[in-house]
Amino acid sequence: MAKSRAQRRSSVLRSNNSPASLIVTPAPARALSSERALLPLGALMLAASVGSWAQTTTPEATLSTVTVKEEAEVQGKDSLLIKKTTVGKGKQDIKDIPQSVTIFSEKLMNDRNQDDFREVLRTTAGVTFQAGETGEEDVRLRGFSLGQAGDIYTDGMKDAPLYERDTFNLDRVEVLKGSASMLFGKGSTGGVVNQVNKAPLLIDQHEVSYTLGTGNFHRLTGDFNIKTGENAAVRLNAMVHNSDNFGAAQDKRGIAPTFTWGIGTRDEFSIGLYYLDVKGRPIYNSPWINNNGKIVPTLPAKNYYGLNSDHLNTSSQYLTLGHIHRFGDGGELQTRVRHGKYERDLLASVIRFGTPITALDQINANTPLTRSSKGRIGDSTMTQVQSDYTNSFTLGGKKHDVLAGFDFYRDDANRNSNYANSAGNSSATNGLGTTVGTPNNGAWAPDMRAPVAYNTFKAQNIGLYLQDTMSLTSTVKLVGGLRYDKFKASYRNATGALSDETSDGLWSPRVGALFQPDELTSYYVSYGSSFNTSADTYQFGNVGTGTGSLADTPPEKSRNIEIGGKWELFERRALLGVAAFH
After folding, report:
1. DSSP assigned state of 554
2. Are 369 and 433 in contact (CB under 8 A)?
3. Which of 314, 306, 307 is nearest to 280 (CA)?
4. Element (H, E) at 43
């Protein structure tokens, strides 16, 4: 989707209450003890004299209560640098994860005017983009598709690849690079991306932002947080977005309310809704020529040659229920349940030259262009449950940070990747052609698509996992984890007949070691594995023979060995990471 960002002006209104207060009441002062034995004789005599005077004048001195003003925990909107992450299923310091991690905070995304998920990832090392063969976005991490393999998550739970994402409700975006099936199960060969939604806070804080830009760009967002009780709060994020840049257009609406009560208490509950609707007019392709094996662009990027009736409409809506139980020993059990519906409808024009073109000098304003329809449609209904237990304790004189949990998901998906107008090719003979010299001609074609026959795909997976991070010494930590997944899927073709089904049970290990000579430096080496079943792209049964030959294909397995280092620089205002992997 082309959008101009050459010039933008933003206005932000923000209000919030004063910083939180921390009350500290020190214990009564005590007389000096055996530490005096380490002092010189003169110091001992002075200490004894002072102690004697204190006992005669004030039998017991009690210091007065001290009020310390302290800022609340850093939010994504208030800091460019985030040092803790939840991408490893539990809050951790980035330096304690033996893999490469990149985090984009809300403030960083806002400062860059990044309202689209792909724009956030565009500056990430190891991330590339290419046209999705199924009409969906294809973002690749270390060369492997994130969307097709299901490696995009929201709050640690799977996110459908169907819809156009927006950042209006995101506190941060976390990128974990390298195989991570021990944490996330199926997929994650190149890594995963985790979107973290904004959560209610125990403060009153409101922000409204309006952005105006070229290409008829208008964007209005609101972030409202209200403390409703001693340990309860509600947060509402909303967004309206419009743009029309040389024919390519987007109209987005989003709202995400969340209510949480029992914040910080033994039992914390939350309920959240999310709704995002995107209606757009895409640029599906641009004609090109092959010049000595090189692809050469032929037409100005600002020219739109599609039809005004072209559209890419997506929607995402889900309900999330959450519960956190805090045990007396410091352990924490966090459980989430999510049910969502995701839809995508694409009808676009494929632009081609009406006559053979082999060189740029053959193109002029009268060169004809044809526009043929390309349509794809799909929807997914996903139900997920995830529960994680985390705790820290000492055993055998060593500190252990333990993660144990399970996750379950069920995905009912419908796809049709050839859902176009019955008119087929739209050329100049039926009034839907154009020329190079007449872009943006406003032509419109009615949607003549017949009721769709879907290919259906049903999948479910349950995973069990356990991980321990042991502090071997004050500078050395060892990480070890293991996960077991049981995956089952079935595929039916457009006639409704069962084409194929498959099931797999797989183990995923993870081991690593960290050397941290000081608080600012961490070196690591790690080994992780990943697997992709033959059903990742919702089309393992497309052979159409009913023999299940493709379904019987063993899962693809990958191994990742990585060595690297992380440093906090410039008085902890910057993080630097270097890694080599195989």
Report:
1. P
2. yes
3. 314
4. helix 41-57
Contact criterion met (CB below 8 Å) for 576 and 566: yes
b (16+ CB within 10 A) / e for 33-57: eeeeeeeeeeeeeeeeeeeeeeeee
Confidence (pLDDT) at 74? 58
| pLDDT recorded at residue 68 | 42
Domain ranges of the chain: 8-21+70-581, 26-64
Which has more confidence, 241 or 9?
Answer: 241
Distance in angstroms (rounded) separating the CA atoms of residues 175 and 124: 9
Q: Positive or negative, the Cα torsion across 72, 73, 76, 80?
A: positive
**SS3 state of residue 430:** helix
Residue 207 has pLDDT above 60, yes or no: yes
* Residue given tokens 């799909």 in the structure block: 378
Torsion of CA 103, 105, 109, 115, to 10 degrees: 90
How do residues 504-554 score in pLDDT, each as one tens digit?
A: 889 999 999 999 999 999 999 999 988 877 645 444 444 444 444 445 567
Across 240-276, b (16+ Cβ under 10 Å) vs e yields bbebbbbbbbbebbbbbbbbbbbbeeeebebebebeb
Closest CA to 86 of 403, 514, 314: 403
Please check the confidence at residue 44 and state whether its pLDDT lies above 50. Answer: no
What is 8-21+70-581's CATH topology? Maltoporin; Chain A (2.40.170)
> What is the average per-residue pLDDT within 366-386?
91
Q: Please give the pLDDT value at position 343.
A: 94
Between CA 316 and CA 278 the distance in angstroms is 9
Q: Do β-strands 267-281 and 311-326 pair in parallel, antiparallel, or remain unpaired?
A: antiparallel
